[in-house]
Amino acid sequence: MSATIMSGKLLADEMTNEMQNDVNKLKEKGITPGLVVLLVGEDPASQTYVKNKEKRALALGFHSLIKRYPADITEEELLNEVKQYNEDPLFHGILVQLPLPKHIDSDKIVNAIDSVKDVDGFHPVNMGKLFIGKPDKIPCTPYGIMKMLERYKVEIEGKTAVVIGRSNIVGKPIAQLLMMKNATVTMAHSKTKDLAALARTADILVVAIGKGHFVTKEFIKPGAAVIDVGMNRDENGKLIGDVKSDEVAEVAGYLTPVPKGVGPMTITMLLYQTIESANKLAALLED
Ligand code: GUN
To answer: How far apart are the CA of 30 and the centre of ligand 1, in A?
Structure first.
């Protein structure tokens, strides 16, 4: 048996085509979706992420701005920048690229973003709404994973899901989203005993632990849907996932590749939520 490869790239392209129509309609009403990315310092991985976001935003005809700050900007100065963009009607989405330098409290900065413009879905208000089952903005990686499961018609209701990794931006929200679709969800993490045996109970296995090729075929129930959120570099600098994809593909029913899996969907959902924010504004203006 060989797994169906769930292409995030393909779905991202499909969704982007649909989103182009939405952008065109907004522009007819005189509104251009605007996204500002605040980037502090020179971290090379962050530079790459941010450039990809800008490229995709510009391709859709967004008003897109990367605002760069030196690594020694103070917390107060950055807070003031965020507040300024909260008030700026040209921008419907604000994203502060993480991680921030150590002298800045990221929580404080994220909390300062107007939750209406929090297209990353990281603000406590948006997190809170998600966890009471009334989501508004949703963290983009888990949101993209749900779109992929839907697109590939992976059944969720009544299924057993195991999520490996308990971060606020992937593990916890994907567990909640799967639970909202009536999966029975177990969260696993670095202290979980006999992880492979637990993972083998999963019809849906989400892996977000940041350890290259950690999940082998011993972790996989035959036919399972396996979502690989990992973005690691091997010894040759090649991008690899958390899942040993060659051997896992022989056992799993579905598998997301790395690259071209979850990654392209994360940016797509970011742009999707920015368009949603702009649409809300358009509706308010029409009232
Ligand atoms: N750093 C790495 N991924 C992300 C992301 O999705 N959003 C933000 N704000 N920072 C990141």
So the answer is: 30
